[in-house]
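Support request, please re-run this one:
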Amino acid sequence: MNIRKHQELLDFWEYSHGFDSEDGTVPIDEDVTFEATRQELQIELEHFDEMELELELHPIKDDDIQPEDEHPNKTMLKRELRAIALKRLEDGARTVSDFEEVIKEWDHLDSNRERKERYHEIGRENLDSKKDVAPLAIVIPAPINHAYWRQLMKGDFIDIISNCPYEMYNSLSDEDYSKIIYDLKDDHKELIYFLYLRDFTTNQLAALRNQSDRNIRGVRSTILGQIEKKVLMILVDRQEEDFPFTNGNLTMEELDFLTRHEEEIPATLEKLNKEKLALLKEIGVVVRRITREQEKRAKEEAKKCKKNNRANRKKEV
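Re-run finished. Output below.
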């Protein structure tokens, strides 16, 4: 510490403790205290000088300071680097194009996650019974190489248990689509099962059910029309609930389905809104009914309490 700064500290200390009087005189009882504190200040200033000299000789570098739980030669994984890059991209987003790029990265990560999840989920819609089957069953017999048999060997019994017209709705992973199949009539379930899961022709199914081929085709077109209307309502509802630029998290097949039925979407929206209003009215009716019942019960309980109080008073009298 230089001499000038040293003197400034001394002058400030004297002024703050009242030793700096105009005439320069100090009372006798304060003279001893002044000398003692002056010596303490001198010692403290010497310590400051030693600390400054130590810092000049051995400066502290920020790079040498590391957390206790962090290894000095830590190598970052690729996913950690990608997470840091995505974080920087999110923090630096300012324009619409920047945010679209961030959303694109999020969608990419979500698609990778869903793909990994699909590896552990086997549904009937993802099966191809003719895939990887040896020609003419030269090496492995065709029944053993069938998709159902491979599932059975893996321990996936859902599709095998649900291989039935009345249980096939369990094979669908989507709850809304599963409900559509569940709500079909038993005859319609059998028709869908044999035509689309067992690959029966209309002639074979007609012979099995003692009906004409024309009748089977007519019923099939009616069922498919009903299913398409319900699926369209589900997809339109999903697309309306989510943000527009995410397309309601729909698959390419679902988007293609909406494109093919684009003319029917306005009427479907109107019908969907009417159903929602009707549902809200029903909920309101149920809520009012419950409220009235609760009020009625409260009144009855109040009457019972009054009767009990009167009876207790009479007994006391």
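Residues 87-118 form one domain. DSSP finds twelve helices and no strands in the chain.
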